[in-house]
Amino acid sequence: MQLKSVNTFAITIMFGFALIILFFSGFLDFPLTASSIPSTKNQILTTFSASKPDPFSNLFGAFKKWDSQVGCAQFRDKHKGLLLNSSSSGSLQKVDEGELKCNELKMDHVSVLVKGWTWIPDNLDNLYSCRCGLSCLWTKSEVLADKPDALLFETATPPLERRQGDPLRVYMDLEAGRKKSGYEDIFISYHAKDDVQSTYAGSLFHNNRNYHLSPSKNNDTLVYWSSSRCLPQRNQLAKRLLSLLPSHSFGKCLNNVGGLDKALSLYPECIKDFKEAPKWWDHLHCAMSHYKFVLAIENTRTKSYVTEKLFYALDSGAVPIYFGAANVWDFVPPHSIIDGSKFSSLEELASYVKAVANDPVAYAEYHAWRRCGVLGNYRKTRAASLDTLPCRLCEAISKRNGRNARAS
Would you identify the CATH topology of the domain 54-85+204-384? Predict the structure, then answer.
């Protein structure tokens, strides 16, 4: 009997040491609070322990509970590595203030003429004051830039040849394939490996919107989805997941709200202008804001191809459920999205979403990055967006000396 007691004591001691080692090694990652929702910092996906659901609709109430149980100090401490160090993954170009060497610029003024039809918004046209005293004229008008330093093409092919004294040829392709024309001097894409990077995170991708955001979240219908380009693979994924979650599907694909533009019937406060016929994009953010989650599925799963589908959801105050680029975390704030690819099944993902929806503290933590100013790499994602493209392109043109660049 004495021997049995000693063995039991020894086993207990060894088990205790094992738990301590696992905890300090980071293998066991406990949530910030006593919430039943596990931390997804390392995407540790476990079966939720039984707890009493706490359904909520008031976003401010959820924030108040999170503040009292967690708070920004604890959230910052958990993600302090992101505050001190930027990502070294290479997914984003270095466009910070200290990265540009002013002595590399060969011109103090650059003009860019945008050629042909393009989706680039007209209000990007402007005269910009850039770093190192460089001024940058970006325009679609030959009246303002009759002798441009560069021509920008987006849907049309640049001239096949460039002679000495001709404008530099710039070609932009932000689609997943990011295929060069073969005739450009400067290539713009969403990828950091190309000459100039332009992410989809900028505000210029969604002009003329009603930015009214609802402080009240739907408690019965959890997920918003809208798509009018019904790609088979994306449609199939959306159909399977949305069959497991209460959702509203707007747009042409899998529509379950009785037709197009029904968002304005559900949420009349989202009408931007009663005098104008509604357009699908002018009430997008407002409609999204009524839902706790927005399903964001990329057309193509390609590295670094993180599009407006995700950033629209972030800007609307919803939590994106994302399927797309494997390196998406290089572009978004910490603990800001639910990465669907990290779950073993759609059923497991749906269970997690429902659990978060019924836990105000866990849900509020997905908004902590914004409320606490913990942006991580998202700061660089915004800095490399379309919003800053004119100055960054003009810097690249100035380094090459514009029209005076050697003929290719």
Answer: Rossmann fold (3.40.50)
